[in-house]
Design goal:
Layout lengths: L13 E2 L11 E8 L12 E8 L12 E8 L12 E8 L12 E8 L12 E8 L12 E8 L30 H4 L6 H10 L7
Length: 211
């Protein structure tokens, strides 16, 4: 599946993320932010666009309702950040840590998580379309009652993930690994799995498999 990558201008000026506090509207665009720390803050209606953000920390910051478009995050730590009710489009999270992030009730389009850590993240009641999770850890991540369309999990760790009330028809998890998943048999219909995973699901259903 091909997704649209962020549309980012060349030769971006450098800013500090703290500059957003001095904007009339909390907005940053057409810039690069490197080595900034913006932790334990609470700021509403933020808009980020046409940006590169590298080596930054946003731990425990409340960004609920944020609009992120055409942004590349690399080597960033957003652990325990509140990104609920967000709009996230044409965004890449590369080599980034997002443990415990609250993405509930958000909308994702053309988003890639590449070599990221999303353990304990919450996506509940979100809509994800054209999204890739590549070599990403999703241990105990919650996808409760999500709508997934053209979503791929490539070589991910899905152990303990919750897909309850989330239909997985057409979703390919065959290259990913898990010891257990929370998912109903009805929602599993049409999901693309490996032969080994099929045996795992059979065991989770209580079947006794004999050769």
């Amino acid at each position: 599946m091909k997704i649209d990558f962020p549309k980012i201008s060349a030769d971006l000026p450098t800013k500090n993320f703290q500059d957003i506090l001095f904007e009339e509207d909390p907005e940053l665009e057409m810039c690069q932010v490197i080595d900034s720390v913006f932790e334990n803050e609470e700021i509403g209606r933020v808009r980020l666009s046409n940006m590169v953000i590298k080596n930054c920390r946003f731990n425990h910051t409340d960004f609920r309702g944020i609009d992120i478009t055409d942004v590349w995050f690399e080597n960033c730590d957003l652990s325990n950040t509140n990104l609920s009710k967000s709009s996230i489009h044409r965004v890449v999270f590369k080599n980034s840590k997002l443990v415990g992030v609250d993405f509930t009730e958000s909308r994702f389009g053309n988003v890639q998580f590449d070599n990221a850590v999303l353990n304990l993240a919450a996506f509940g009641d979100s809509k994800l379309e054209k999204c890739k999770f590549h070599e990403t850890s999703l241990k105990n991540t919650d996808f409760f009652e999500c709508k997934l369309k053209n979503v791929e999990f490539q070589f991910c760790i899905l152990d303990g993930a919750n897909f309850e009330q989330t239909p997985l028809k057409g979703i390919d998890i065959s290259t990913s690994t898990f010891n257990s998943l929370t998912v109903s048999m009805d929602d599993l219909k049409g999901c693309k799995v490996s032969s080994f995973q099929a045996i795992q699901f059979a065991a989770l259903m209580g079947l006794v498999i004999k050769d």
